[in-house]
Write a structure and sequence with these properties.
The complex is a heterodimer of chains A (about 600) and B (about 90). With about 600 residues, chain A is an alpha/beta fold. Helices cover about 45% and strands about 15% of the residues of chain A. Chain B starts with 8 loop residues before the first strand and ends in a 5-residue tail after the last helix. The chains are: A alpha/beta (about 600), B alpha+beta (about 90).
């Protein structure tokens, strides 16, 4: 090893999911061998070059065979893909074409292989189906293995994916994150992404420590490098020295101990010191997560994102399929409420078969309720499934991205139609169902007094609201630091929604990221938010914080907060007034 | 090739959820490689070599797609039947 490889490097990124992990890096989405020599081969040496290529393929083949043999019985699925890789090695489109290229263009094997793989990659990447698009990565894996044998690099053991590794990538799209076997991943590190990017949300949901927005992590880190990820402070350390390692192991222990102690109390109600109970609910994306919400002591589901059932498939799910999944969630949670948000696609979650078209600004494009109102049949299918599942517990329905009264009236009209069609067909469903809307478009805040007459509850979606109010793309690392939930404009908007909602006698919930941060709680409680919904694993921590707050004090505190004019003033007011409460929550000191 | 009798080609529907993906294509290639002559997979008007996983993947056959398996020599009939059975069985998934 050279000296460079031993040197400790500390990088600062965005801490997107709390926790600490220490382990080996695994680079994805990047060619394993970067620098490739390119030279021409004289006629006399062409045969020798072809033989060199064949030998590299043979070694790659032997490596793969050895790995397959070492793979234990229980991970047969994984071995299946390795068998496919063995066949790819000798595939005429890869093997044959590379040899043809060496001979026809008189170039070295590395260069020829790179050319052939580049062409194959282009074919796959132009495919619309996300699964087949991803197949380019199988070819890249195989060609990387050949390439390493050509240039004489160290082999990477594919088995290391099965051991728990820390994933390092330039960025991960929602489709990619859903295809990685995240339960095998210890930590997540990306060049792009911000705190509320999809990767960030997934990492928090699955409790994987994550540092995002590092700009150049993939350039600095190599596969198998030893790294430390501190998702709480957003710190990443490459090649930690012994002292650093000891320090982080201790921190990690403290974090686990702290988490264990608060989770022991997670079943107790979240009651303020003056005796007011706050409902702390969970956000879920996958039906399986409902168990986590229950285990962490959640009082229900405040946001059930329904997009995942529509992703990684070739056609829209049927009413029965949706009904089965919803029923499952509703039954497990009963009698506690499950708030089902209707389909929010096209934004940053693109469904290939939904007739994808390029939009310059997808976040401002045809998404969520706009999409559903334009495709009433798709919408109707989901609404019917929800109404049917509602019989099995307590279901609330919530429409996303409502910007004015026409949209909510239309959505309610289609909901009524869905109910009537079930009635006509004699299908069992629940008539009485609470209907609410997300408040995430600034126009909805302005029109809150009018909209409140249409619904049973408001749920403030802070991720999008902050993004739209401040005109910040939360996934853009150049501006994601300006994504500030404590911006006075944001707080005034939340306050207005809470005030109007209560005047009109409807409940006001919050289901964004902001609700999951103990630091924001004095403000949210003081504003009178009735129900908070957050990532399941944050429930114990938030409940714990609520128990140390006094609601009356918080209401007085909010009056002071609303007088402040900058983020900095608000933050410092929070620290001076609630610093002791908050620091009690932080485990790293 | 245009005068091939019907029993040299069979149409089959992909029924497994993932479609003709890498692992399932590898299973087909494994069988096709034992054939004496060429074995072809046809979808719409595209024809690919069933001995090449990559070639088959370029068809991007999702669940529900109809493909035709074609052989060139009567001695490969067992190969044809094995591939059709494999696809109809959803690749044993």
């Amino acid at each position: 090893m050279t000296e460079r490889e031993h040197r400790e490097i500390v990088l600062k990124g965005i801490g997107a999911a709390p926790g600490i992990c220490i382990g080996k890096a695994y680079l994805v989405g990047k060619e394993g061998v970067n620098v490739i020599k390119r030279y021409h081969i004289g006629d006399a040496n062409i045969d020798r070059e072809v033989c060199r290529f064949k030998a590299a393929v043979e070694s790659a083949n032997a490596e793969l065979r050895a790995i397959i043999e070492e793979t234990p019985e229980e991970i047969r699925r994984h071995a299946g893909i390795l068998e496919a890789h063995v066949l790819l090695l000798k595939d005429k489109m890869l093997f044959g074409k590379t040899i043809d290229t060496i001979q026809a263009q008189r170039i070295n094997a590395e260069w020829a292989l790179k050319k052939v793989v580049g062409e194959l990659k282009a074919i796959f990447q132009n495919m619309t189906d996300p699964y087949f698009k991803e197949r380019a990565s199988d070819i890249v894996h195989v060609s990387d293995r050949i390439m390493r044998n050509l240039v004489g690099g160290e082999p990477v053991n594919i088995k290391s994916i099965d051991k728990r590794v820390i994933l390092v990538a330039t960025d991960l799209s929602p489709a990619e994150t859903s295809q990685i076997q995240l339960e095998r991943i210890k930590g997540l590190v990306t060049d792009g992404g911000g705190i509320a990017s999809h990767t960030g949300i997934i990492a928090r949901t699955l409790e994987i420590p994550a540092v995002l927005g590092l700009h150049n992590a993939t350039a600095l880190i190599r596969s198998d490098d030893f790294i430390v990820v501190d998702g709480t402070t957003g710190t990443l350390i490459v090649n930690p020295d012994e002292n650093t390692l000891i320090e982080y192991e201790e921190r990690s222990l403290r974090y686990e101990r702290h988490r264990a102690s608060i989770s022991r109390a997670s079943r107790l109600p979240a009651q303020t010191t003056d005796g007011i109970s706050i409902q702390v609910m969970g956000n879920i994306e996958l039906p399986e997560e409902v168990v986590a919400v229950r285990d962490y002591g959640g009082n229900g589901i405040g946001l059930y994102r329904t997009e995942f059932q529509y992703m990684n498939r070739t056609e829209f799910p049927t009413e029965d399929e949706l009904f089965d999944r919803y029923k499952e969630v509703v039954e497990v949670m009963a009698p506690h409420p499950v708030t089902i948000r209707t389909l929010d696609i096209n934004g940053d979650k693109v469904i290939s078969y939904a007739g994808h078209f390029q939009e310059a600004n997808p976040a401002l494009g045809l998404r969520a309720i706009r999409y559903c109102l334009k495709k009433p049949r798709i919408f109707m299918t989901q609404l019917r499934a929800i109404l049917r599942a509602a019989r099995y517990g307590h279901v609330r329905i919530m429409f996303p991205m409502i910007s004015g009264s026409h949209e909510i009236q239309e959505a309610k009209r289609i909901l009524l139609e869905a109910a009537q069609s079930l009635e006509r067909e004699g299908v069992d469903y629940k008539r009485e169902i609470e209907v609410g809307m997300m408040v995430e478009v600034p126009s909805a805040v302005v029109m809150a007094d009018v909209l409140a007459d249409e619904v049973d509850f408001f749920s403030i979606g802070t991720n999008d609201l902050v993004q739209y109010v401040l005109a910040i793309d939360r996934g853009n690392r150049h501006v994601s630091h300006l994504y500030q939930p404590l911006h006075p404009a944001v707080l005034r908007m939340i306050w207005r929604v809470a005030e109007v909602g209560h005047q009109k006698g409807i409940k006001v919930f919050m289901c964004g990221q902001m609700a999951g941060d103990p630091f924001h709680l004095p403000i949210l409680l003081g504003m009178g938010i009735d129900e908070l919904s957050l990532n399941p694993q944050s429930i114990p921590m938030v409940k714990n914080t609520v128990r140390s707050l006094n609601l009356w004090d918080a209401k007085c505190f909010v009056k002071e907060v609303l007088k402040q004019t900058s983020v900095r003033e608000i933050e410092s007011l929070l620290k001076t007034t609630y610093g002791d409460v908050i620091s009690g929550m932080i485990y790293t000191h | 090739m245009d005068s091939l009798p019907d029993n040299y080609a069979k149409e089959v529907k992909i029924i497994n959820d993932l479609g003709l993906h890498a692992r399932s294509a590898a299973q087909i290639a494994g069988i096709a490689q034992q054939a004496e002559s060429k074995v072809w997979l046809i979808k719409d008007d595209e024809e690919v070599d069933a001995q090449s996983v990559i070639d088959m993947l370029t068809l991007a056959c999702a669940k529900g797609a109809h493909i035709t398996v074609k052989i060139e020599s009567p001695s490969d009939l067992p190969i044809l039947n094995d591939i059709v059975a494999l696809v109809e069985d959803g690749f044993g998934e």
